[in-house]
Amino acid sequence: MRVTVSRKAHFNAAHRLYRKDWTDAQNEHVFGKCNNPNFHGHNYELIVSVTGKINPETGYVMDIKELADIIYEEVESRFDHKNLNLDVPEFQELNPTAENIVVVIWNKIRKRIAPGNDLEVVLYETPRNFVTYSGE
Ligand code: NI
């Protein structure tokens, strides 16, 4: 019997999508509004889910308070009110698309989750646009 425990979180951050090795026209064509040279912000929403067996002693898959603390330390404290391109080392050379952000977040949280439990992260860049990563 495996149960999924989920915690929501959010952070506000600025970014700009572009490739240094492309022309302005190419960047504009592919990245559109997200290519704005002066950056722009998103209200990112996050759903972090951990799936595993219920510990018969505690009745928990994992303590959700511990999961909340992990998300705060690994994601919110590092990304909230930051410019992802300029302030977050992982995106110095990596385009901060929702896809790349969700993989970075998953890798940070994964190392804090018990090896027998599975992890999935869903990242909303807008209320209608979201990406999912589970380490595949
Ligand atoms: Ni954007």
TrEMBL record:
Biological processes, Gene Ontology terms? tRNA queuosine(34) biosynthetic process
The alphabetical list of record keywords is:
Lyase, Metal-binding, Queuosine biosynthesis, Zinc
Q: What is the enzyme's class at the highest EC level?
A: lyase
Which residues hold Zn(2+)? H15, H40, H42
Q: Name one GO molecular function term.
A: metal ion binding
Q: Give the cofactor binding note.
A: Binds 1 zinc ion per subunit.
EC assignment: the record states 4.-.-.-
Pathway involvement of the protein, from the record: Purine metabolism; 7-cyano-7-deazaguanine biosynthesis
Q: Which cofactor does it need?
A: Zn(2+)
Output the Pfam families linked to this UniProt entry: PTPS (PF01242)
- Where would one find coiled-coil regions in this protein? none
Question: What residues sit in the active site?
Answer: C34 (proton acceptor), H81 (charge relay system), E125 (charge relay system)
Query: In terms of domain of life, where is this protein from?
Result: Bacteria
Family of the protein in this entry: Belongs to the PTPS family. QueD subfamily.
**What is the protein name for this chain?**
6-carboxy-5,6,7,8-tetrahydropterin synthase
Can you name the source organism?
Flavobacterium limnosediminis JC2902
What taxonomic ancestry is recorded?
A: Bacteria, Pseudomonadati, Bacteroidota, Flavobacteriia, Flavobacteriales
